[in-house]
Protein backbone atom coordinates (compact mmCIF):
# COMPACT_ATOMS: atom_id res chain seq x y z
CA UNK A 1 0.00 0.00 0.00
CA UNK A 2 1.31 3.43 -0.90
CA UNK A 3 2.56 5.38 2.07
CA UNK A 4 2.58 2.38 4.42
CA UNK A 5 5.63 1.55 6.44
CA UNK A 6 6.61 -0.99 9.10
CA UNK A 7 6.47 1.75 11.70
CA UNK A 8 2.71 2.15 11.10
CA UNK A 9 1.84 -1.54 11.64
CA UNK A 10 -0.15 -2.85 14.60
CA UNK A 11 2.93 -4.44 16.18
CA UNK A 12 4.77 -1.13 16.22
CA UNK A 13 1.68 0.58 17.61
CA UNK A 14 1.42 -1.91 20.48
CA UNK A 15 5.14 -1.59 21.22
CA UNK A 16 4.89 2.19 21.21
CA UNK A 17 1.93 2.19 23.61
CA UNK A 18 3.67 -0.38 25.80
CA UNK A 19 6.71 1.89 26.05
CA UNK A 20 4.49 4.82 26.97
CA UNK A 21 2.74 2.81 29.67
CA UNK A 22 6.06 1.63 31.15
CA UNK A 23 7.35 5.19 31.16
CA UNK A 24 4.16 6.42 32.83
CA UNK A 25 4.30 3.64 35.41
CA UNK A 26 7.89 4.52 36.23
CA UNK A 27 7.07 8.20 36.74
CA UNK A 28 3.70 7.81 38.52
CA UNK A 29 3.52 4.29 40.01
CA UNK A 30 0.78 5.05 42.57
CA UNK A 31 -1.51 6.64 39.98
CA UNK A 32 -1.03 3.78 37.53
CA UNK A 33 -1.60 1.12 40.20
CA UNK A 34 -4.73 2.94 41.41
CA UNK A 35 -6.11 2.93 37.88
CA UNK A 36 -5.19 -0.74 37.56
CA UNK A 37 -7.02 -1.60 40.80
CA UNK A 38 -10.07 0.27 39.54
CA UNK A 39 -10.03 -1.75 36.32
CA UNK A 40 -9.89 -5.01 38.31
CA UNK A 41 -12.78 -3.78 40.47
CA UNK A 42 -14.89 -3.06 37.40
CA UNK A 43 -13.91 -6.46 36.03
CA UNK A 44 -15.28 -8.25 39.10
CA UNK A 45 -18.40 -6.09 39.57
CA UNK A 46 -20.59 -7.99 37.06
CA UNK A 47 -20.00 -11.20 39.00
CA UNK A 48 -21.46 -9.61 42.13
CA UNK A 49 -24.53 -8.51 40.21
CA UNK A 50 -25.07 -11.89 38.53
CA UNK A 51 -24.42 -13.98 41.63
CA UNK A 52 -24.80 -11.70 44.65
CA UNK A 53 -23.47 -13.19 47.92
CA UNK A 54 -25.70 -13.87 50.89
CA UNK A 55 -24.37 -10.68 52.47
CA UNK A 56 -24.05 -8.16 49.57
CA UNK A 57 -22.64 -5.39 51.72
CA UNK A 58 -19.88 -7.67 53.00
CA UNK A 59 -19.18 -8.80 49.44
CA UNK A 60 -18.75 -5.26 48.13
CA UNK A 61 -16.66 -4.27 51.15
CA UNK A 62 -14.32 -7.22 50.63
CA UNK A 63 -14.24 -6.56 46.87
CA UNK A 64 -12.96 -3.02 47.43
CA UNK A 65 -10.74 -3.86 50.41
CA UNK A 66 -8.92 -6.59 48.47
CA UNK A 67 -7.93 -4.11 45.76
CA UNK A 68 -6.87 -1.13 47.88
CA UNK A 69 -3.51 -2.68 48.96
CA UNK A 70 -2.55 -3.05 45.27
CA UNK A 71 -2.05 0.72 45.16
CA UNK A 72 1.22 0.38 47.13
CA UNK A 73 2.25 -3.02 45.74
CA UNK A 74 5.46 -1.59 44.19
CA UNK A 75 6.63 0.42 47.20
CA UNK A 76 5.93 -2.23 49.89
CA UNK A 77 5.05 -5.43 48.02
CA UNK A 78 5.18 -7.83 50.96
CA UNK A 79 3.02 -5.56 53.13
CA UNK A 80 0.47 -5.27 50.35
CA UNK A 81 0.50 -9.04 49.93
CA UNK A 82 0.04 -9.61 53.67
CA UNK A 83 -3.04 -7.36 53.75
CA UNK A 84 -4.51 -9.03 50.66
CA UNK A 85 -3.84 -12.50 52.12
CA UNK A 86 -5.50 -11.55 55.41
CA UNK A 87 -8.57 -10.20 53.60
CA UNK A 88 -8.71 -13.30 51.40
CA UNK A 89 -8.67 -15.45 54.54
CA UNK A 90 -11.51 -13.33 55.94
CA UNK A 91 -13.36 -13.89 52.66
CA UNK A 92 -12.87 -17.65 53.07
CA UNK A 93 -14.08 -17.55 56.66
CA UNK A 94 -17.18 -15.59 55.61
CA UNK A 95 -17.87 -18.00 52.79
CA UNK A 96 -17.94 -15.17 50.23
CA UNK A 97 -16.82 -16.37 46.79
CA UNK A 98 -15.23 -13.48 44.87
CA UNK A 99 -13.34 -13.87 41.59
CA UNK A 100 -11.73 -10.52 42.32
CA UNK A 101 -10.18 -11.99 45.44
CA UNK A 102 -8.38 -14.63 43.40
CA UNK A 103 -7.09 -11.96 41.01
CA UNK A 104 -5.93 -9.68 43.85
CA UNK A 105 -4.01 -12.52 45.52
CA UNK A 106 -2.26 -13.42 42.25
CA UNK A 107 -1.36 -9.79 41.54
CA UNK A 108 0.01 -9.37 45.06
CA UNK A 109 2.07 -12.56 44.68
CA UNK A 110 3.40 -11.33 41.33
CA UNK A 111 4.40 -8.04 42.98
CA UNK A 112 6.36 -9.85 45.70
CA UNK A 113 8.19 -11.89 43.04
CA UNK A 114 8.95 -8.80 40.95
CA UNK A 115 9.84 -6.29 43.67
CA UNK A 116 10.83 -8.16 46.86
CA UNK A 117 13.37 -10.74 47.98
CA UNK A 118 13.42 -14.43 47.12
CA UNK A 119 12.89 -15.41 50.77
CA UNK A 120 9.71 -13.35 50.98
CA UNK A 121 8.56 -14.80 47.68
CA UNK A 122 8.88 -18.32 49.09
CA UNK A 123 6.88 -17.31 52.17
CA UNK A 124 4.20 -15.64 50.03
CA UNK A 125 4.00 -18.61 47.67
CA UNK A 126 3.56 -20.98 50.62
CA UNK A 127 0.74 -18.84 52.00
CA UNK A 128 -1.00 -18.71 48.62
CA UNK A 129 -0.66 -22.47 48.18
CA UNK A 130 -2.27 -22.96 51.59
CA UNK A 131 -5.08 -20.68 50.48
CA UNK A 132 -5.44 -22.71 47.28
CA UNK A 133 -5.94 -25.85 49.36
CA UNK A 134 -8.52 -24.16 51.61
CA UNK A 135 -10.41 -22.66 48.66
CA UNK A 136 -10.42 -25.99 46.83
CA UNK A 137 -11.85 -27.82 49.81
CA UNK A 138 -14.56 -25.20 50.38
CA UNK A 139 -15.67 -24.25 46.85
CA UNK A 140 -14.58 -26.96 44.39
CA UNK A 141 -17.49 -28.99 42.92
CA UNK A 142 -17.65 -32.60 44.09
CA UNK A 143 -15.41 -34.84 42.03
CA UNK A 144 -13.30 -31.94 40.74
CA UNK A 145 -11.07 -31.29 43.74
CA UNK A 146 -7.90 -32.42 41.97
CA UNK A 147 -8.57 -30.44 38.80
CA UNK A 148 -9.39 -27.25 40.70
CA UNK A 149 -6.33 -27.64 42.92
CA UNK A 150 -4.03 -28.17 39.91
CA UNK A 151 -5.58 -25.20 38.09
CA UNK A 152 -5.22 -22.82 41.02
CA UNK A 153 -1.69 -24.09 41.78
CA UNK A 154 -0.75 -23.53 38.15
CA UNK A 155 -2.04 -19.97 38.32
CA UNK A 156 0.00 -19.41 41.49
CA UNK A 157 3.14 -20.76 39.85
CA UNK A 158 2.56 -18.66 36.73
CA UNK A 159 2.19 -15.45 38.78
CA UNK A 160 5.44 -16.16 40.66
CA UNK A 161 7.39 -17.10 37.50
CA UNK A 162 6.19 -14.04 35.58
CA UNK A 163 7.19 -11.82 38.51
CA UNK A 164 10.63 -13.42 38.69
CA UNK A 165 11.12 -12.95 34.95
CA UNK A 166 10.14 -9.31 35.26
CA UNK A 167 12.62 -8.80 38.09
CA UNK A 168 15.37 -10.52 36.09
CA UNK A 169 14.61 -8.38 33.05
CA UNK A 170 14.63 -5.22 35.13
CA UNK A 171 17.95 -6.18 36.71
CA UNK A 172 19.40 -6.93 33.28
CA UNK A 173 18.27 -3.57 31.90
CA UNK A 174 19.71 -1.83 34.96
CA UNK A 175 23.03 -3.61 34.43
CA UNK A 176 23.04 -2.63 30.76
CA UNK A 177 22.35 1.00 31.66
CA UNK A 178 25.04 0.90 34.34
CA UNK A 179 27.53 -0.61 31.91
CA UNK A 180 26.67 2.02 29.30
CA UNK A 181 27.14 4.76 31.89
CA UNK A 182 30.49 3.29 32.95
CA UNK A 183 31.63 2.99 29.34
CA UNK A 184 30.64 6.59 28.70
CA UNK A 185 32.50 7.68 31.81
CA UNK A 186 35.58 5.69 30.78
CA UNK A 187 35.36 7.18 27.29
CA UNK A 188 35.23 10.68 28.77
CA UNK A 189 38.16 9.90 31.05
CA UNK A 190 40.14 8.52 28.12
CA UNK A 191 39.37 11.65 26.12
CA UNK A 192 40.59 13.76 29.04
CA UNK A 193 43.79 11.71 29.26
CA UNK A 194 44.41 12.09 25.52
CA UNK A 195 43.75 15.83 25.76
CA UNK A 196 46.14 16.13 28.71
CA UNK A 197 48.84 14.21 26.83
CA UNK A 198 48.33 16.45 23.81
CA UNK A 199 48.59 19.57 25.96
CA UNK A 200 51.79 18.23 27.51
CA UNK A 201 53.23 17.49 24.07
CA UNK A 202 52.36 20.97 22.82
CA UNK A 203 53.84 22.50 25.97
CA UNK A 204 57.09 20.60 25.37
CA UNK A 205 57.17 21.76 21.75
CA UNK A 206 56.59 25.38 22.74
CA UNK A 207 59.25 25.13 25.43
CA UNK A 208 61.81 23.61 23.05
CA UNK A 209 61.11 26.07 20.24
CA UNK A 210 61.07 29.22 22.35
CA UNK A 211 63.97 28.32 24.63
CA UNK A 212 66.31 27.23 21.85
CA UNK A 213 65.47 29.97 19.38
CA UNK A 214 65.57 32.82 21.90
CA UNK A 215 68.83 31.64 23.44
CA UNK A 216 70.49 31.46 20.00
CA UNK A 217 69.07 34.86 19.04
CA UNK A 218 70.32 36.41 22.30
CA UNK A 219 73.79 34.94 21.76
CA UNK A 220 73.93 36.17 18.16
CA UNK A 221 72.68 39.62 19.13
CA UNK A 222 75.24 39.91 21.92
CA UNK A 223 77.94 38.85 19.49
CA UNK A 224 76.77 41.38 16.92
CA UNK A 225 76.84 44.17 19.51
CA UNK A 226 80.38 43.15 20.49
CA UNK A 227 81.62 42.88 16.88
CA UNK A 228 79.90 45.98 15.49
CA UNK A 229 82.72 48.49 16.26
CA UNK A 230 85.53 46.27 14.96
CA UNK A 231 83.91 43.96 12.37
CA UNK A 232 80.67 45.41 11.00
CA UNK A 233 80.35 42.70 8.37
CA UNK A 234 80.41 39.94 11.01
CA UNK A 235 77.90 41.89 13.10
CA UNK A 236 75.59 42.15 10.09
CA UNK A 237 75.97 38.42 9.47
CA UNK A 238 75.05 37.67 13.10
CA UNK A 239 72.00 39.94 12.93
CA UNK A 240 70.91 38.29 9.67
CA UNK A 241 71.32 34.84 11.20
CA UNK A 242 69.35 35.93 14.28
CA UNK A 243 66.55 37.19 12.03
CA UNK A 244 66.49 33.88 10.15
CA UNK A 245 66.26 31.88 13.38
CA UNK A 246 63.43 34.15 14.54
CA UNK A 247 61.47 33.49 11.37
CA UNK A 248 62.03 29.77 11.77
CA UNK A 249 60.77 29.96 15.35
CA UNK A 250 57.66 31.81 14.18
CA UNK A 251 57.02 29.14 11.56
CA UNK A 252 57.38 26.33 14.11
CA UNK A 253 55.14 28.14 16.57
CA UNK A 254 52.56 28.53 13.83
CA UNK A 255 52.70 24.78 13.23
CA UNK A 256 52.04 24.15 16.92
CA UNK A 257 49.19 26.66 16.99
CA UNK A 258 47.65 25.00 13.93
CA UNK A 259 47.20 21.89 16.08
CA UNK A 260 45.23 23.95 18.58
CA UNK A 261 43.13 25.61 15.89
CA UNK A 262 41.69 22.40 14.53
CA UNK A 263 38.93 24.21 12.65
CA UNK A 264 41.23 26.80 11.10
CA UNK A 265 43.23 25.99 7.92
CA UNK A 266 47.00 26.22 8.34
CA UNK A 267 48.59 29.41 7.10
CA UNK A 268 50.07 28.98 3.64
CA UNK A 269 53.82 28.58 3.59
CA UNK A 270 54.18 28.35 7.37
CA UNK A 271 53.60 24.62 7.85
CA UNK A 272 56.92 22.77 7.81
CA UNK A 273 57.80 19.12 8.30
CA UNK A 274 58.76 18.21 11.84
CA UNK A 275 62.53 18.25 12.35
CA UNK A 276 64.35 14.96 12.58
CA UNK A 277 67.79 13.40 12.27
CA UNK A 278 68.31 15.06 8.90
CA UNK A 279 68.11 18.50 10.49
CA UNK A 280 70.68 17.86 13.22
CA UNK A 281 73.53 19.28 11.13
CA UNK A 282 71.60 22.51 10.60
CA UNK A 283 70.85 22.68 14.32
CA UNK A 284 74.51 22.26 15.22
CA UNK A 285 75.46 24.92 12.68
CA UNK A 286 73.11 27.36 14.42
CA UNK A 287 74.56 26.47 17.81
CA UNK A 288 78.14 26.92 16.59
CA UNK A 289 77.19 30.24 15.02
CA UNK A 290 75.89 31.33 18.43
CA UNK A 291 79.34 30.74 19.90
CA UNK A 292 79.20 27.21 21.32
CA UNK A 293 81.77 24.80 19.82
CA UNK A 294 80.12 21.42 19.27
CA UNK A 295 81.72 18.13 18.25
CA UNK A 296 79.37 15.72 16.46
CA UNK A 297 80.13 11.98 16.45
CA UNK A 298 77.94 9.34 14.78
CA UNK A 299 78.61 5.59 15.06
CA UNK A 300 76.71 3.04 12.99
CA UNK A 301 73.72 3.44 10.70
CA UNK A 302 70.41 4.74 12.05
CA UNK A 303 67.59 2.17 11.98
CA UNK A 304 64.17 2.84 10.54
CA UNK A 305 62.36 5.21 12.91
CA UNK A 306 58.96 6.80 13.19
CA UNK A 307 58.94 10.53 12.56
CA UNK A 308 57.99 11.12 16.18
CA UNK A 309 61.07 9.19 17.35
CA UNK A 310 63.33 11.31 15.15
CA UNK A 311 61.68 14.43 16.55
CA UNK A 312 62.35 13.15 20.08
CA UNK A 313 66.08 12.73 19.40
CA UNK A 314 66.22 16.13 17.69
CA UNK A 315 64.50 17.87 20.62
CA UNK A 316 66.72 16.01 23.08
CA UNK A 317 69.88 17.33 21.42
CA UNK A 318 68.35 20.79 21.01
CA UNK A 319 67.31 21.09 24.65
CA UNK A 320 70.60 19.73 26.00
CA UNK A 321 72.65 22.21 23.94
CA UNK A 322 70.31 25.04 24.95
CA UNK A 323 70.98 24.17 28.59
CA UNK A 324 74.73 24.25 27.93
CA UNK A 325 74.46 27.81 26.62
CA UNK A 326 72.17 28.87 29.46
CA UNK A 327 74.02 27.33 32.40
CA UNK A 328 77.73 27.46 31.52
CA UNK A 329 80.20 30.34 31.04
CA UNK A 330 81.72 31.35 27.67
CA UNK A 331 84.43 29.06 26.36
CA UNK A 332 82.54 25.87 27.17
CA UNK A 333 82.66 23.10 24.56
CA UNK A 334 80.04 20.42 23.90
CA UNK A 335 79.99 17.00 22.32
CA UNK A 336 77.03 15.19 20.72
CA UNK A 337 77.33 11.43 20.22
CA UNK A 338 74.85 9.18 18.42
CA UNK A 339 75.46 5.44 18.51
CA UNK A 340 73.34 3.02 16.47
CA UNK A 341 73.63 -0.75 17.01
CA UNK A 342 71.28 -3.69 16.53
CA UNK A 343 70.62 -3.75 20.28
CA UNK A 344 70.27 -0.09 21.15
CA UNK A 345 70.29 3.53 20.08
CA UNK A 346 72.19 5.91 22.35
CA UNK A 347 72.15 9.69 22.41
CA UNK A 348 74.70 11.48 24.57
CA UNK A 349 75.36 15.18 25.00
CA UNK A 350 78.22 16.27 27.24
CA UNK A 351 79.96 19.55 28.00
CA UNK A 352 83.13 20.53 29.83
CA UNK A 353 81.89 23.73 31.41
CA UNK A 354 81.46 24.77 34.99
CA UNK A 355 78.08 26.14 36.10
CA UNK A 356 77.52 29.79 35.33
CA UNK A 357 77.29 32.29 38.14
CA UNK A 358 74.08 31.91 40.10
CA UNK A 359 73.51 28.26 39.12
CA UNK A 360 74.21 25.71 41.92
CA UNK A 361 76.84 23.13 41.10
CA UNK A 362 75.41 19.81 40.02
CA UNK A 363 72.01 21.23 39.21
CA UNK A 364 70.45 22.78 36.13
CA UNK A 365 67.06 24.29 36.78
CA UNK A 366 63.98 24.56 34.58
CA UNK A 367 61.48 22.23 32.96
CA UNK A 368 63.80 21.13 30.16
CA UNK A 369 65.06 17.92 31.75
CA UNK A 370 61.54 16.91 32.81
CA UNK A 371 60.34 17.49 29.25
CA UNK A 372 63.23 15.45 27.84
CA UNK A 373 62.48 12.60 30.22
CA UNK A 374 58.81 12.60 29.15
CA UNK A 375 59.72 12.56 25.46
CA UNK A 376 62.17 9.70 25.92
CA UNK A 377 59.71 7.67 28.00
CA UNK A 378 57.11 7.83 25.22
CA UNK A 379 59.36 5.57 23.12
CA UNK A 380 60.32 3.27 25.96
CA UNK A 381 63.70 4.89 26.54
CA UNK A 382 65.55 5.88 29.69
CA UNK A 383 67.10 9.28 30.31
CA UNK A 384 69.87 10.11 32.73
CA UNK A 385 71.14 13.61 33.35
CA UNK A 386 73.71 14.75 35.87
CA UNK A 387 77.15 16.22 36.50
CA UNK A 388 80.36 14.54 35.38
CA UNK A 389 83.04 13.66 37.94
CA UNK A 390 85.58 16.08 36.44
CA UNK A 391 83.11 18.89 35.84
CA UNK A 392 80.61 19.50 33.11
CA UNK A 393 77.27 17.84 32.48
CA UNK A 394 76.04 14.71 30.77
CA UNK A 395 72.67 13.90 29.23
CA UNK A 396 72.29 10.29 28.12
CA UNK A 397 69.31 8.52 26.55
CA UNK A 398 69.06 4.89 25.52
CA UNK A 399 66.36 3.31 23.31
CA UNK A 400 65.57 -0.07 21.83
CA UNK A 401 65.37 0.11 18.00
CA UNK A 402 62.06 -1.77 17.96
CA UNK A 403 60.49 0.89 20.18
CA UNK A 404 61.62 3.68 17.88
CA UNK A 405 59.90 2.10 14.89
CA UNK A 406 56.43 2.29 16.44
CA UNK A 407 54.19 5.29 15.87
CA UNK A 408 53.04 6.94 19.09
From TrEMBL:
Entry-linked SMART domains: HATPase_c
Span of domain Histidine kinase/HSP90-like ATPase: 308-405
Enzyme class: transferase
GO cellular component assignments: membrane
Ranges in coiled-coil conformation: 173-200
Transmembrane region(s): 30-49, 56-72, 78-109, 121-139, 145-164
InterPro entries recorded: DUF7134, HATPase_C_sf, HATPase_dom, Sensor_HK_TwoCompSys, Sig_transdc_His_kin_sub3_dim/P
Keyword GTP-binding part of the UniProt annotation: no
Keywords from the named record: ATP-binding, Coiled coil, Kinase, Membrane, Nucleotide-binding, Phosphoprotein, Transferase, Transmembrane, Transmembrane helix, Two-component regulatory system
Pfam entry (one): HATPase_c
Molecular function per GO: ATP binding; phosphorelay sensor kinase activity; protein dimerization activity
Catalytic activity, reaction form: ATP + protein L-histidine = ADP + protein N-phospho-L-histidine
Keyword match Phosphoprotein: yes
Known EC number: 2.7.13.3
Name of the featured protein: histidine kinase
Organism of provenance: Actinoallomurus iriomotensis
